[in-house]
Amino acid sequence: MKYRMMWAVFTALALGVPSCLAAADPIVIRFSHVVAADAPKGKAAEFFRDRAETLTGGRVRVEVHPNSQLYKDREELEALQLGAVQMLAPSLAKFGPLGLREFEVFDLPYIFADDKALKQVTNGPIGRRLLASLEGRGIKGLAYWDNGFKSFSGNAPIRHPDDLRGKRMRIQASKVLETQMLALGAVPHMMAFSDVYGALRAGVVDGTENPHSNLYTQRMHEVQKHLTVSDHGYLGYAVITNKKFWDGLPRGVRRQLEQAMREASDYANRIAREENERALDAVRAAGTTEIHVLDEAGRAAFRAALLPVHQAMAERIGPELIRAIYDATGFDPQQP
Ligand code: LMR
């Protein structure tokens, strides 16, 4: 992987331009992502490819590389900044290591009561400001794509926060998620998405959290005996591109790509919920994993254990941002 990255740097430096622009025609967009081709993000990336190629009349060719085939989580962000790939859609939890801690606000447990509350943020001034904040890192934010609300999985039933005490839980690279697991008495393990299935199978970690579509399309259900529908947090994506590449596109092409991205975003945000419901049905049908739905007492216990994470992370994320989201969505942290 190191050699691949070095080669990408060498190419970009030697040509003095983003490598994809070196060939005049067609313009190639390498769109790398870490999930399966049939996960919601994978499907939306292919939808974007088809619309981009059609709308530009073939002037743009989009190569979609799923399943961390090109780069893992951290590497893909470096590759984008270096111009070795042109498009990504990392989960919002993965921008903290770039120094963009505000994005971790999306990881706060229960901060979005439902899709409507989420859209108040992503479609409004807060969402736009967060995307604009990427520009200082040479990144242009194009859109938000949904996945959905997360469930816990493990090899023992999870009905109450105490069931996670001492369990090694895989998390994404987010300090908020780390604090969330610590608040449950679990032991957080940050790990790239591509390593999770192997780590669960080998028993390096006991469990994890993700929306059902990610769990199912990575076959995690084969190595997790229990799944708890907890809806305790949100997982979504920012679709991003290399700013220099984007600004250097012919204006007409950029407009066509913006249109393709609008259509792909509508598609992504339309299918995500249904894909997650379908994945849960598929896990049930596979018969490998017992599915639990938290009862009222279980929900209340998780909420009580996890809401203090907002306060604990306020300094890191920015109390004004958290307050602005409460105001935009009507969220009341005092309400049990
Ligand atoms: C994860 O790493 O758990 C997910 O964010 C992967 C993804 O991109 O959906």
**How are the strands of the biggest sheet laid out side by side?**
2-1-3-10-4
Count of extended strands: 11
Task: Estimate the mean pLDDT confidence.
Answer: 94
What molecules are bound to this protein?
(2S)-2-hydroxybutanedioic acid
What integer value in Å does the Rg equal?
20 Å
Output the helix-strand order: HEHEHEHHEEEHEHEHEEHHEHHH
Task: Indicate the CATH architecture of the largest domain.
Answer: 3-Layer(aba) Sandwich
What is this structure, in a nutshell?
The chain is 45% helix and 17% strand. With 336 residues, the chain is an alpha/beta fold. The protein folds into 2 domains: 2-94 and 113-146 and 236-272, 3-Layer(aba) Sandwich (D-Maltodextrin-Binding Protein, domain 2), CATH 3.40.190.170; 151-233 and 278-329, Bacterial extracellular solute-binding protein, family 7 (D-Maltodextrin-Binding Protein, domain 2, 3-Layer(aba) Sandwich).
What report would you give on this structure?
The chain is of the alpha/beta class and 336 residues long. It has 2 domains: 2-94 and 113-146 and 236-272, Bacterial extracellular solute-binding protein, family 7 (D-Maltodextrin-Binding Protein, domain 2, 3-Layer(aba) Sandwich), CATH 3.40.190.170; 151-233 and 278-329, Bacterial extracellular solute-binding protein, family 7 (D-Maltodextrin-Binding Protein, domain 2), CATH 3.40.190. The chain has 13 helices and 11 strands. The strands form 3 sheets. Strands 2-1-3-10-4 form a 5-stranded mixed beta sheet, with helices on both faces. A 4-stranded mixed beta sheet has the order 8-5-9-11. Strand 1, helix 2 (40-55) and strand 2 (60-65) form a beta-alpha-beta unit. Helix 2 runs antiparallel to helix 10 and helix 6 packs antiparallel against helix 12 (308-317). (2S)-2-hydroxybutanedioic acid is lined by residues 34-35, 41, 91, 147, 172, 193, 210, 214, 235. (2S)-2-hydroxybutanedioic acid binds at residues 34-35, 41, 91, 147, 172, 193, 210, 214, 235.
